[in-house]
Design goal:
This protein is α+β, with helices and mostly antiparallel strands. Helix content is 17%, strand content 21%.
Length: 350
């Protein structure tokens, strides 16, 4: 780091002896200050080290829990299809400052939140009225209308350790669509969605996934800029999932700088995490956000714009969501996901 020194003009000559003494003092001060700054810089660099994001641990899933969701080519769902390009970011990530984690939920349910199990309007979940607070918390309650649209994907029984990714209800005329990350699964076989999942319980019920829609860019070459998927679900007890918990409108071509609620189910936890922070631009087709403690299992978690209520991202994309638990990415939502949505909606209506 370049050291900048401020100079002042001397208006009169000093005696040689006094001048020599003062010069020695100044030199000593400059050397001491320089070493002090160097030590500070080295300390700051050490604090910037990041821990890698772990793959889905076998310890967090029962034997065979990921089998139905595993890609047919034998790759790990947490790693994506074989041969996916390990592209480097086009621009340096510039995430907003990480919020401080808290054990106590800082958000309260909206005043117009419906009681658990009460259907909400199928026109989609309303924009949240909760105060935006930086940091990661446990989600306040499943009665919060926005939080109720977020759930866990299960392979096998609905029990602790069987969930492997996160998904959310996407508003649609058919009322049966979900949003998640494409790298989470490429088959619907044996996959179940549980909105509002908490500690082994399904407060609103569960819905069987019947179809997975991804782009040709993802299915053909694992394009990280198209790491999103739209899932179809079958009715449960004669009702579509959106009829019960509502859904989030898809937001496309929205500014990179937005304040979002970031949801996700860590693979080793039985309740979802919620973080509120501002997003940034990692590259032309990638968003980035700093939120602490978003490990494996949170992939597919929605980024919900607090101002509009639109879902503008899903954890995935660059590094399949990020190799640090404290920084997450999402492919940018533009005309590509809009076309996928139209395709999925048409298929669901047929």
């Amino acid at each position: 780091m370049a050291q900048h020194r401020r100079h002042t003009k001397r208006h009169r000559l000093l005696a040689p002896t006094l001048f020599t003494a003062l010069s020695a003092v100044v030199v000593a001060a400059v050397v001491t200050g320089t070493h002090g700054l160097s030590l500070s810089d080295a300390t700051a660099a050490g604090k910037a080290a990041r821990s890698p994001r772990a793959a889905v641990a076998e310890a967090t899933a029962s034997p065979g829990a990921l089998d139905a969701a595993a890609p047919t080519d034998g790759t790990d769902p947490a790693q994506g299809p074989t041969g996916s390009p390990a592209a480097s970011p086009a621009e340096s990530p510039e995430p907003a400052p990480t919020g401080t984690a808290s054990e106590t939920p800082t958000d309260s349910p909206s005043e117009d939140a419906a009681p658990a199990g009460t259907p909400t309007a199928s026109a989609g979940a309303k924009a949240s009225t909760r105060t935006a607070v930086l940091g990661t918390t446990a989600v306040a309650a499943s009665t919060d209308p926005e939080a109720a649209t977020v759930g866990a994907l299960f392979s096998g029984g609905i029990a602790a350790g069987n969930h492997f990714c996160t998904a959310s209800v996407l508003h649609s005329p058919t009322g049966n669509l979900l949003l998640t990350a494409a790298h989470c699964l490429n088959s619907a076989d044996g996959v179940t969605f549980v909105p509002g999942y908490r500690d082994g319980s399904a407060p609103f019920g569960s819905w069987r996934v019947t179809a997975v829609h991804t782009t040709s860019g993802w299915s053909g070459k694992g394009d990280q800029d198209e790491d999103f998927a739209i899932l179809e679900t079958a009715p449960s007890n004669g009702r579509n999932v959106e009829d019960v918990v509502g859904g989030n409108h898809l937001g496309t071509d929205e500014p990179f700088g937005a304040t979002v609620h970031l949801y996700g189910y860590p693979g080793d936890a039985e309740t979802p995490s919620l973080c509120t922070n501002s997003t940034g631009k990692q590259s032309t087709y990638q968003r980035v956000v700093s939120c602490p403690a978003y490990p494996a299992g949170t992939s597919g978690g929605p980024w919900i714009d607090v101002a509009t209520g639109d879902v503008v991202g899903a954890i995935g994309g660059f590094q399949q969501g990020g190799d640090s638990d404290d920084v997450s990415y999402s492919a940018y939502f533009d005309h590509t996901i809009a076309a996928l949505y139209a395709e999925a909606e048409a298929a669901a209506a047929s």
